[in-house]
Amino acid sequence: MPSNQLKRVVVIGAGVAGTMAAQTLRTEGYDGELTIVSAERHSPYHRPPLSKKLLTGKVHRAGIDMAPQNELAARALRGASAIGLDMSSRTVEVRDDNQNRALTFDGLVIASGAVARQWPGGPVPGGVMALRTVDDCLAIRDKLGKRTRVVVVGGGFIGTEVAASLRSLGLKVTLLSQADTLLQSALGHEMAQCWTDLHRQHGVDVRVGVNVDRLVGNGHVKAVQLSDGSRLKADLVLIGLGVEPAIEWLRGSGLKVDKGVMCDATGAAEGATGVVAAGDVARWWHPLYQQHLRIEHWDHASRQGVAAARTLLAGPDNAEQYDAVPYFWSDQYDVKLQLVGVPTGYDVVEIIEGSAGDWEFVAAYGKNGRTIAVLSTVPGRVNDYRSAIGNQAEFPPRLHT
To answer: Where is the signal peptide (predicted)?
Structure first.
């Protein structure tokens, strides 16, 4: 049952984490005041299609909106930003319509997400863009023509997904990575090499182990100068350097902030009561991995939003730990990458089903003799190994038949 002390709840952020938190509050009995603060003016939408089907035009703009699951009876402040938090007065300061206003709360959900890292070299010429919001996606689409030469800077998931999407449109694409393989930080060198090969097989000019010295162009980008001395002609440069959690507004609030909002295993923010966090901004203590994790994936953010709302409703004495095994997917060309668990710190990786050569395989990651993550290109197959990870099964994992 909802805590009797909750009368006014503020949700900062209208992405999947904030939206799921708000929906859960209502569906599980909270009937007090509910205010949702969103930095974007759009109604809540799904981000995964931005680098895939919306970018290629396979879905229309309206096709990515989150379907309303219930009447939230909430006040929505759109195009508004949280700029400060005062725990002594339990108020959030919000910049809304060129005015500052203070929102008083009993419960606070921090789901402010993350922002794209900016180009470290300062101002950039026109035609250099990042992809984080739906407006970014639509602006990039407007720049695309049949002969557009695109350089993508960054070999993480955003960079590789964008490269695959644009290559599927027949565009000439060059993909740059500082690491010696694409997706190396996410998958490790051994398995990441598969996706490096995949992009090359599809005609992407993949350059690894390189840095960008400068962006060349007077008014509009013309080329990208690389650290190896080469120069790439470019009509459009897409920057995929990752994201930073949106936590600047929390400085001085008393909450523990370190590369995200530090939370316990229930999602409660450390350093405050009645405050929870979820999604890209949150670093939750994960009981299985025995460390704080900040995970930038849709499924995780959705589940965290639900868990954070339940923690707020239950109160500190009755809240339950959130220990779901993280899950992620990425569609690139005709290959679906699915990953369950967190491979960080693995000391062994092994293909346990199929072979990488035919792109139907399952690979497992181990650490200290235990299974910590499973990667697969067979749709749905990772779900069969979820319990092995949760139970810390011996490596390599074996399914019971």
So the answer is: none
